[in-house]
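help with this.
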Amino acid sequence: MAALAGLCALPRLCGVALFLSQLYVLSGRAGSLMTTKHSQPLSTFAKSLTSASTNTPYFKAAESTEIPSYVTKCPSNGLCSRLPPDCMTCNTNYSCIYGKPATFDCKVKPHVHCIDENNHEQENFTINMTCQFCWQLPTTDYVCTNSTSCMTVSCPRQRYNATCTVRDHIHCLGNRVFPKMLYCNWTGGYKWSTALALSITLGGFGADRFYLGQWREGLGKLFSFGGLGIWTLIDVLLIGVGYVGPADGSLYI
């Protein structure tokens, strides 16, 4: 009887075991599905973090600004009123009266630092200047190019086209670089005193003309013994008054 009861219970045990195995398989699939669903947003979020961290240096590089070139011309912590015009922006008033004092409101450009008379840093300030255009300034307020190809000793005196630039600490209206016609004014290193001394002492041998670079006239005086003294006396007078100058057309020093 006991053996018969054991045989009858065996199918029930097999059914229970089969049910438990199916339940285990189903629970494993559900867990894998849950894991997959939760892992996708996490991976997407991780990718977004990675891309954001990768792009961060790019945005930083785009936001970084280089120092402008004009900063090298601007003295740090100097007086604002003494800054060069390239370091500031001013409200120019062209309706001021020529030759009269004028006041303009100015502001320093970015990356420029300056102070007032009380050593306080400021950005907005005023400058005082004479109402006039840059090309009307005195000759001491600008620098011009020089020409060595024109004759300084001529009648009428020659002029040349020069390009002039206003000095940094000078303020004026209009363009700070302008053209101007100037008289020829350059020297080749010849001294008037040396030329006159040679004309008086050795003028009969053409030493004065040789010194000034006038070889033809020097040879003429040498072989004519100073034009029998007449040419020598004339050259002393002409060099003394400055009528005869260096052959290159420059001025005496």
